[in-house]
Amino acid sequence: MKNRNTQPKPLFINKENMCIALDLYQLTMAAGYFERSKNHTSTFELFVRKLPENRSYLVAAGLEQVVYYLNNLTFTDTYIQYLKNLPLFKNVSREFFRYLRNFCFQGDLFAVPEGTIVFANEPILRVTAPAIEAQIIETYLLSMINYQSMIASKASRVVYAAEGKEVIDFGTRRAHSPQAGILAARACFIGGCIGTSNVLTAYELGIPAIGTIAHSWIMAYDDEFTSYKDFQRVFPENTILLIDTYDTVKGAELAVKIGKRLKGVRLDSGDISLLSRKVRKILDNAGLEQVKITVSGDLNEYKISELLKKRAPIDSFGVGTEMVTSKDSPALNGVYKLVEQEVDGRVIPKMKLSEDKVAYPSTKQVYRFFDKNGRFKKDTVGLADEKYDAEALLLPIIRSGKLSYTIPTVREIQKFATGNFARLPEKFKKLDCGTSYQVLFSKRLREMKERISRNLIGFDKK
Amino acid sequence: MKNRNTQPKPLFINKENMCIALDLYQLTMAAGYFERSKNHTSTFELFVRKLPENRSYLVAAGLEQVVYYLNNLTFTDTYIQYLKNLPLFKNVSREFFRYLRNFCFQGDLFAVPEGTIVFANEPILRVTAPAIEAQIIETYLLSMINYQSMIASKASRVVYAAEGKEVIDFGTRRAHSPQAGILAARACFIGGCIGTSNVLTAYELGIPAIGTIAHSWIMAYDDEFTSYKDFQRVFPENTILLIDTYDTVKGAELAVKIGKRLKGVRLDSGDISLLSRKVRKILDNAGLEQVKITVSGDLNEYKISELLKKRAPIDSFGVGTEMVTSKDSPALNGVYKLVEQEVDGRVIPKMKLSEDKVAYPSTKQVYRFFDKNGRFKKDTVGLADEKYDAEALLLPIIRSGKLSYTIPTVREIQKFATGNFARLPEKFKKLDCGTSYQVLFSKRLREMKERISRNLIGFDKK
User: Fold this and answer.
1) Residues B338 and B443 in one domain
2) Cβ separation B234–A12 shorter than 8 A
3) Chain B residue with Cα closest to A6
4) Number of domains in chain B
5) CB of A143 within 8 A of CB of B197?
6) Could you tell me which chain B residue has the CA closest to the CA of A331?
7) CA distance, residue B451 to nearest chain A CA (Å)
8) What share of chain B in percent tops pLDDT 70?
9) pTM of this prediction?
10) What digits encode the pLDDT tens for the residues A277-302?
């Protein structure tokens, strides 16, 4: 049988196949720019039009993976052959495919450092490159920045709600694919989590891997206490016991029999506020004040906040599904838009007028103003060459294809994010925040937009 | 500086590192089972406790990637060394790591074929293997089955709403990571989409890659019509033009000037119902009745249904964000639970009693009953050895580690899914369905659960 799929496919992304991990139209446009000699230097900006519901800020994340992609993107013969054979490309010249074979990203990338707090309509990154290079990378850049920024932002909310108690990412099993689990663990760490259950992320990034036992461990025994003792024997310094398999209170009573070497207990079901209190009392009565209580089970920032409001004696939160899917707002609508082209030495600002989807033209910069205490006061999105007594957020990352930036470790990024967050005024941190941070467009930018809108409308009316 | 991250990391999953793409507790439990001689043959079942909101059925998907994983899972020295060095494992014997070094999955896998319609509490797959093998694979299995089943189910709803019009997956840029984009495209195809914008998925699975141009193509030109003509020159047989960049009606008026070679137009913004009607009229008046109208832009099953109710003259729908994130219900809470162990020749059914999280014990099968027209009548979840005049949904896929099943192509899976869906009674297909399909538990299973609950509670009271 033709096309018989005899071997199961893993559907991994790798260094070789990432060149076609994109939307087909990137390649038709690339071919079109090539064939019609329209490979002009172009600037695209990636930004979020509107913050997700309940969010009043975003934590930018995903840049490191974007840098990897841009610095390693090539088209090997296998994929070029596949594209050549698509009926769609039959009128496209051999030269285009030869161009692809020699493709490498030689443009410029500006971006806000990972961990930077950003808001709607602020460019998170900006690419300037020949049109084909800038176009082909759109899909991958969006998918990396959209997902990691969404998760870092969600994690930041969860960590904020936890008021200094530890938050751990437990989400891999509900993340949207194994790779999403890895990236989520990274983004959650940037957002302030202290570690992850995901071993591969811990390995890759050198961050803490955290975890002990599931219900199946307890269930593998005929009696619960033997399961506790056995675990304690194998992990004498890390005896954190899951105590809700049959009955949480009884589980706690058995756990205290482990004695001084018990390190913690985990509750994963039931009325956590009530049960954590009962468990704390059982622990304390047994003289085990140092034993920590971890809770898990469909937690989110609202539930954590509620638990802490009720003064539930919880030391750490394992958060999974809701954090790694950003469940209350599971898609970040980042877009990547052409804002400028240089044609025969002439710089032409670009914008579209589609209903409800108007954006600002030209190459921009984000200028952040601070109050006298060093807190964020307001941002101005202006042209890249404007001068303000403010911090310019977009930094040069890649220049003419070469990395011109020291990639920070994820711990450094977390530290940077924490510092950034500390400077965000308190009112924007509220979980149900209705308050919008002030992002203005500069006078020059507004005037340019006005002028171009008029011209475009004028043009259409001709 | 120590741990200096000089090279950016892609964070890909691959054949080598997938062994640690799991939650740490799978490995602590594995070590515990090993050290305490508890590596008994165990059966785990993967099922969804409760259907997501608005869903009345699920389309099972992800099995092919599970099979790849089970048949290729090994622990290389690099990762074993990493684990050995974790302080957590310092009391674990060298023998355990030697065991890991020789690890390969030698158990049995039963599963419903991909594309099968399933309901809450029905095992989608069942693993029987030594405890360590069955435990270690939990995270990866859940992440694959949860995500692909969720997306295939969502796509099935979108395709149903489209009433026979074409639906195309456009979602990669908003999927949760590049790999999620690939898997989503596959799951959407299983759910009935005719193709995807994702080139890598099209390449890997031999399905149609679909796409033409984005707004940037139009914006790269000084005038819209030249951009249309140029695209037509390069893609004479595939001239599908995006006409909403500046003004949809004017865009349509320019597009018809392309003449008979125009194949289609795409609308991506504005009042789609109204605009599609205006555009259809412009096309028809120009004698271009054959030209197709595609629409896109934050579509979902409800919006599509609404558009078709209003008789909007649309030929195909490009659906992205909402489909690949299952936006209205972005996490499928599949769980993987120990249901049975064999200890010294004795078969012991297992269950936990955690509040709200009780499951049924023992190795099960799903029996599906049909009415005289071949439509689904009801399902019974019973013990694996019960006999009914019904279809047993769980089939043997892997026996003692060896593939015993012919992996179907994704086109065959789509066909199978379509056939399965056709046999689902109409009332369960409604988009806002409140009707639950009847899933019963067999008498033997209910009695067993009752008996074990009593014993467990009895045990706890001791």
Assistant:
1) yes
2) no
3) B407
4) 2
5) no
6) B174
7) 15
8) 97
9) 0.97
10) 999 999 999 999 999 999 999 999 99
